[in-house]
């Protein structure tokens, strides 16, 4: 998950278990306290549920499930709301996220590309060989 | 019949467009060239103008438009020279049309007689194929069109407003809930206040009566200034109770004010709620169009079809003034025309056949629309051949859709509903005897998209009726809210026929079928579908019967919470793969409720949970290790070391956490420190050895306490290995090898 950073200089740092991840600051639009998450039955386990934000829901993603990270505690759960091409997705963080700046020449470990993350975690339509299925 | 003035309004709106197209097109012809494209646009505009005018029976406008249409056709086909001189004539006609439209706008009728000279001239031109001119010089300018008091608004703007309104309704519902809380709070305070008050009254009354004792001295100087004879004897209690009573009175008054305040507030909220609802209704009605416009348009098209086939029909439209949402309006055209075409093609017989059957020569088609609550029911009836149910049965069996035994139990309407199944009948094997399955699947799909249902009834040789039931508006849906495993869900109410309680069907869980009103209805259990659990026995439960265009299915849910109207939001692109949901709604409290797509649930091969494929890591571990240490650096270094050996590593910072991890993770070996907060290593080993599940789980102690005493104690408790910090990779690897944790180091 290391990637060379060219344009971005400002990052938001968030943590899961003992790992820390960086995400471009521009894509973070909101940081919320997690009070209650409503599960979405049928969704993959990395989607812990949905959080209502201003009358719309934001899916909450637990990267611990994606990267197999052990959780130490759940005490300070925050939700980072990202804007990926107009869509809002949320990522759980065990720490209160903070912002850092790096020289753009520096290689950053644990950098997450929001677009790539979005595409990889997006729920794909279950492939169905029977289209236009009717009731029978 | 549809309100005529309403129709005229629409005609005026439309005609404005056509006239503008005509004027612009004519200018293009004059200033640029006689392009085929412009001519065709002009031809189309006149053609539709003719159609629209004839629907509202403005025959003069229709005639002029017709003449113009013929003229353009001749020009397009180059029968008439494509020359600017023709435009004078055209302009004359357009102006005549405009003045007629002006009359219509003013008096709702055409007053001036047709200019027969003009009409004759055009006929002449078309016949002789030469451009003739009027004696009078043509006017240069066009007359002004009537001013129509309306604006055209992009639908998306209205949709936006409706979205905002949806938000407002959510907020309003929250306030309503809050208001109830306030009310109960006030009531509670009032009750306590009253209790306090009566307590104090009774206390002071009692005290009043009891004699004074010498012991109780009066301390208030006001009273001590008087001698015993000068003033009633009061002691401190008296005064205290008095004061309390007074304060209580004040409180009581305050409470009464609070009550009237909260009552006023409630009525304010109620009014606000009403206003919001009427705002919503008004907004929705902006997008509403009378269905008659659509039906008129369709029947014109259908009459043409019938004429081409040499069949004669009467079309009767009822309830054309019922309004439907613009998107519904647009999406209804295709399915309706499809059904009607089928009726003409395969239903209505030729005049000769009809007479032979003793029917009237003209076929009758009825398009009846009525409102049922928030739904619009459109029934399309023809008095043609009807559908031969025996043929439907035969074909359903041939296609393998049904077997002979099943048919026995099925009602006619249920069997008929199979004509909607895709491929039931295709264009290659249209059977004029058996009826018309052709393309009905398309019709059904379109209706389903509109959240509607379609059913068919037929009497052989007599009639066929298609009944379409659709919601009047697409933006707000009526939902049934139900509960399962403590989560709330919603399902559109339009497919729901009935709700039964589980008590009447005790064996439902085993039989997966209920016998209701002599129908066997298959049932699915929601909690099993959605939570893949059937652990707890269902004592309480409700059976929701769905009717999908005649096919009934049942769903068992835990509890039903009620019915609600709400705007369904889309789940968004990220979650759209969860196509078992239509979207979600928010409850008054802001809780999301996912809206189930009932059609998806009953799909035969419905699998709810998705196969999860993650591309992030390989899962081919050779073993799983749990590292328990309060030092993060030890945990980290061990984790790195072990992960490099292709081991899955779990970490915990004390014994208790380790136990928690062991509850839901399988582990092959534990490496634990001894000194840790919360639960130390000895305790952990002790507990694990007492637990039958972990009594043989290898445990290695890794500690900085290297004394024999520590080692012996650990081994006594059941540790399998002992390492002293600082550790090195080699010893750890060797030790793990001993326990067969690191297998096959060959590669």
Give an account of the 3D structure.
- The complex is a heterodimer of chains A (136) and B (747).
- Chain A has helices at 63-67, 114-121, and strands spanning 3-4, 10-16, 19-24, 28-33, 47-53, 56-61, 78-84, 87-93, 98-101, 107-108.
- By secondary structure, chain A is mainly β.
- Chain A has a single domain (9-118), classed as OB fold (Dihydrolipoamide Acetyltransferase, E2P), CATH 2.40.50.
- In chain A, the strands form three sheets. In chain A, strands 4-7-8-6-5 form a five-stranded mixed beta sheet. In chain A, strands 3-2-9 form a three-stranded antiparallel beta sheet, with no helix packed on it. A two-stranded antiparallel sheet of chain A has the order 1-10.
- In chain A, a hairpin with a 2-residue loop joins strand 5 and strand 6.
- The longest helix of chain A is centred in the last third of the chain and has 8 residues, at 114-121.
- Mean pLDDT of chain A is 77; it is low at 127-136.
- Chain B is of the alpha/beta class and 747 residues long.
- In chain B, the strands form five sheets. Chain B has a five-stranded mixed beta sheet, with helices on one face. A five-stranded mixed beta sheet of chain B has the order 15-8-9-17-16. Chain B has a five-stranded mixed beta sheet with strand order 10-13-14-12-11.
- In chain B, helix 6 (155-209) packs antiparallel against helix 8, helix 10 runs antiparallel to helix 15 (440-449) and helix 20 (655-664) runs parallel beside helix 21.
- The radius of gyration of chain B is 42 Å and the shape is extended.
- In chain B, 31% of the residues are buried.
